[in-house]
Amino acid sequence: MAFAFKSQNSLDPLRMIVVGEVVGIEKASYFEADKLSAELDVDTRPDTVTLKVASPKGLRVGQTLYLLEKNQDHKTYRDANIVGMVTVRSVFQTTFFGWQVRGDGYLRLIEDRPVTAARLLDATKYEEAVMAKKQGDHFVAKGKLDEAIRLYKRAISLDPNYPDTHFALGKVHWNDGEGYVSAAYEFSQAWKNRERFSNSQEQLLFYLEYMRFLIYQFKTEGKENTKNLELLPQIAKEARTLNPKNYEAWLYSFESAYLQFVRANILATGVESRKSKEEWSEKAEEALLKAAYLRKSDFYLHKLACEFYNLKWKETRNTPKEKEYRDKLVEHGRLLRIYYTGETGIADEILNAIRLAEKQSGVF
User: Fold this and answer.
1) Which pLDDT value is given to residue 281?
2) Which UniProt keywords apply (predicted)?
3) What is the homologous superfamily of the domain 124-178 according to CATH?
4) Among 40, 96, 116, 279, which has the highest number of CB atoms less than 10 A from its own CB?
5) Helix or strand or coil: residue 217?
6) Cα angle: 350, vertex 358, 279; to 5 degrees
7) Is 265 helix (H, G, I), strand (E, B) or coil?
């Protein structure tokens, strides 16, 4: 146990558990000066920190650890000052050095001083929450959703900020078809605590599912829920950062940018609105090209592409750009026919637009 103070003048200590000590601080090997670094003439990247810990118990990805410097007047770490913070990125065991933690923080000013790492005395029961969540997963696989929901809710009561459980419960509510509002709440809680996901794969799966849900929600509620549409680009960006080669991340990036383009097209009355519309158009086309490169055989991608290029063709009639967008509509219309699965319908407006574009381009 340690009582840590945020500053020399603070009389309100935080109760903490000492977990280990700092054994290494370094910058990432790759460096590209950003605007802030150039202005300050310093390297503003966070430091990569390695900690040696006695046990992984109570440690998790996304958790904040506090770095303590012992007051030299005391013989133990019971009283110390907080001199830095580290966000945990991985917890792992090595053959020679035992358990270690890797994290990010800004620590260059203290790298040559002996520093101890500690975590807050946690009132939650993380390990029990993980176990309850796994039991819930088991009952989902068995099709016993009522029991799964009960266990997921128990896991949330043990650790309300554990995003894996909110994600799992949100999926059950949405797939059940009757918990639409509940699913929205659980997904929002998982997003709020996304830094605490147990692993990056689960985090990516959540991002993809949340984007799919928000797109569905916007199409269902339309103008009544534009706030969620505005959240989509941020989720898409974080998904692409986790895995730049994930097809669905680029597909939903395209769809979200396309929906933003459609909305901006309706509101395009002033200079700023028209500028916003063009920006979303460029982002949509960029994401479309990347998605098509990763997976060309998806009917849904070409259906969206036809809708997008039909709008672009309409707004560029009698301009030098008209032929470019007409030909792109023809090309995606061709691919749409090749990969059409018959699972969903295609609007007559799009089919007629494809036929007209083909006729004008001389395909038929």
Assistant:
1) 94
2) TPR repeat
3) Tetratricopeptide repeat domain (1.25.40.10)
4) 116
5) helix
6) 60
7) helix
CA dihedral 321, 325, 326, 331 (to 10 degrees): 150
Topology (CATH) of 179-361: 1.25.40
Domain positions in the chain are: 2-122, 124-178, 179-361
Residues of the chain where predicted confidence (pLDDT) is lower than 50: 30-31, 33
Q: Are 14 and 3 in contact (CB under 8 A)?
A: yes
Helix (H, G, I), strand (E, B) or coil at 85: strand
Q: What is the DSSP string of 139-186?
A: HHHTT-HHHHHHHHHHHHHH-TT-HHHHHHHHHHHHHHSS-HHHHHHH
* pLDDT tens figures, 29-65: 544 545 555 565 666 678 888 999 988 887 888 888 8
d(CA 58, CA 277): 48
Rounded CA-CA distance 284/276 in Å is: 12
Comparing CA positions, the residue from 210, 200, 212 lying closest to residue 243 is: 200
* DSSP codes of every residue in 299-348: HHHHHHHHHHHHHHHHHTTTSTTHHHHHHHHHHHHHHHHHH--SSS---H
| pLDDT at position 285 | 96
The token duo for 138 is 């088991």
Domains 124-178 and 179-361 share a fold: yes
Q: 197: which DSSP letter? A: -
Report the pLDDT value the prediction gives residue 152, as an integer from 0 to 100.
96
Residue 303: predicted pLDDT: 95
Are 202 and 234 in contact by the 8 Å Cβ rule? The answer is: no
Is 154 in contact with 133 (CB distance < 8 Å)? no
Tell me, yes or no, if the pTM score tops 0.85.
no
Token code pair at residue 43: 């390297």
**Residue bearing tokens 């750009």:** 321
Class of domain 2-122: mainly beta
Which of 145, 157, 47 shows the shortest CA–CA distance to 102?
47
Within 10 angstroms of residue 144's Cβ, the number of other Cβ atoms is 14
| Helix/strand/coil for 83 | strand
Q: What is the pLDDT of residue 13?
A: 66
Cβ proximity of 90 and 116 under 8 Å: no
